[in-house]
Amino acid sequence: MNAVMLPETIHPDLWRGNQLARARSRVIDCGDESLARELPGGGWPRGALTDLLVQQTGCGELRLLRAAFEQLSSRPVAMLQPPHDLQPTALA
Length: 92
What we know:
alpha+beta; 2 strands; two-stranded antiparallel sheet
């Protein structure tokens, strides 16, 4: 038996980008109207792990998080296993 485990069977807040999911939690504004239409709840979920899956790393994907970083400037943010060393100048 080769069952495919769907994210929502693991936890109701897990979803894939191509699933038009809706968040059940609070979100942080993503700063982009077209991206907000695709994100669950219209923004980045608070208190949750977000994994950015891109075809090519280092293409400026952290710009997607800029509005959230600005809103969270006084709160800690953890980057788990980024594909490259983070550049403080770029983050500033």
